[in-house]
Amino acid sequence: MTDDHRILHQSAADAFSIWDAANIFEYATSRFTAIHIALLEDDINHSNSYQHSFVKYMVWEAEHFVIPFVNMAVAMNLNTTMPPYLCKVLLLITSFQTEPYNHGKFFAGFEACPHQSVTHPVDINRVVPNYKHPWWTYRFDLLPFNMPIWISVAKVKELVAGHFAQRPRMALMVPRPITHTHGSDDPLLHQLQVLWTEVARLGMELSRVLVAKLDATSEAVAALNHLEDPLEEVSEAMAASHAAVAVLRGDYDNDRLGASPSIKPFPHLEPLPR
């Protein structure tokens, strides 16, 4: 991995986690649920023009609150999946974009897709009073399309936080299903799987850090090994110098060197450390 790609991966990991995926997909599911309820309750003539506008807004929903985060989760190897209703809606949108699906077929498919259970606590409390960009609450088919071209990850996370702040307190205690559960519909198992996946991801990140530290340590040891031979040469040279000084001192003490007795040219030298 090049430095540029590594920096890009790290910045994405810092901005997006499996918990973000869980909350964002739940937020998207809530939006599609609110849209479906509004569609079933309105008494508007669903003309071809209405259906065309409706599908355009639905694609916008998926491209801003679902598809980018599916891509991020896949690219970062986050072991996530989506709530069942969101899966059905996303498959409808994908079919519209990749198959010979016309607007009418997509509209009929979404209208017939059940949006919630009447008993599941997550489904009962899924819709909240206020949403940002609630295009389904007015006659969008009579107005020009005026939705944001892009929404940042930080902004989406801000919208998600505001969404969950509106949910009933007891609803916040219900685990939000998001990851693979091997066939189980138990919300607690969903939550435990999220925790397990996040711990596994953190373990992988820790492994990468440890490997990087070991590589750095190996490089430092190799550098010290390269310094070992020069240090030995310096030590040998110092030992030879001490030996030469010892010989000269002996000659001086035995009056073999001419000098005044008051001069001490060879002070006492400490032995070299071993």
Properties at a glance:
mainly alpha
* Ends distance: 46 Å
Q: Which series of helices and strands comes N to C?
A: HHHHHHHHHH
Largest β-sheet summary: none
The overall pLDDT average reads 76
Which runs of at least 5 residues are low in confidence (pLDDT < 50)?
1-13, 173-183
SS element count, helices = 10
Tally of DSSP β-strands: 0
Helix content: 55-70%
Query: Which structural class is indicated by helix and strand composition?
Result: mainly alpha
Measured by DSSP, the beta-strand proportion falls in under 5%
Coarse morphology:
rod-shaped
Rounded to an integer, what's the Rg over CA atoms? 36 Å
Q: What oligomeric state best describes the polypeptide chains here?
A: single chain
How would you portray this structure in words?
- The chain has 274 residues and is an all-alpha fold.
- The chain is 64% helix and 0% strand.
- Helix 2 packs across helix 8 (153-165) and helix 3 packs across helix 6.
